[in-house]
Write a structure and sequence with these properties.
9 strands, single chain, alpha/beta, 6-stranded mixed beta sheet, 3-stranded parallel beta sheet, 2-enoyl-CoA Hydratase, Chain A, domain 1, 11 helices
Amino acid sequence: MENGHIKSKVENGIGYITFFHPQSNSMPGALLRELAQEVEAMGQNNDAKVIVLQSEGDKAFCAGASFDELISIKDLETGTTFFSGFAGVINSMRKAPKFVIARVQGKAVGGGVGIASSADYTFAVEAASVKLSELAVGIGPFVVGPAVERKVGKSAFCQLTINATEWQTAQWAKEKGLYAELFSTVEDMDKGIAALAQRLAGSNPEAMMMLKKIMWEGTENWDTLLLERAAMSGKLVLSEFTVNAINKFKQKA
């Protein structure tokens, strides 16, 4: 439980992948790698026609990177490897030959915004505010940037990136295209997810696979691009400025 977990199951043609970490669903490197592997495996599972990605708890969908792990990084290779964890999750969602539906039941920060942006269709509740806080701790949303910008556009991405300490509302995220549908309660959201997932599970798998390829045209270089971005973050996290900023941030949390 202390290290979190990933769970998956297939029911009625719908593949469910659930992640959890006790610190507001913040993601250490090992959990990110496991999540990416699970998305890839579900993409190859013939029993699953559509994928629903979700997290446990009711406060935070994903609080981004694990600060405990961030401040333990002492060299570039380790830093690059850690940030490539989010790259792996994003790329696994991008390359899955099935539509990925995200269930955002709480706030999303940093890498959490990246995961929500990488889904093909994202449901959220009205309490699911978003924030890209990376600049506030001395780095930047380099790895998640392409996914967020693809979904909300450059202007909104810049707004999130520059105003790194301020939350944007779920309504703002819906207006910018990050969230496809917004609900006042988790119960209503889950009904909406179930209805769409069931319809997709009965749709033509080949048609959905072809549509997904078209929807993600122009991202074929992301396997390389996101790793290059991970190295940028890996370098910055070693700086004295960033170490001090993360420690201050942890004290406030």
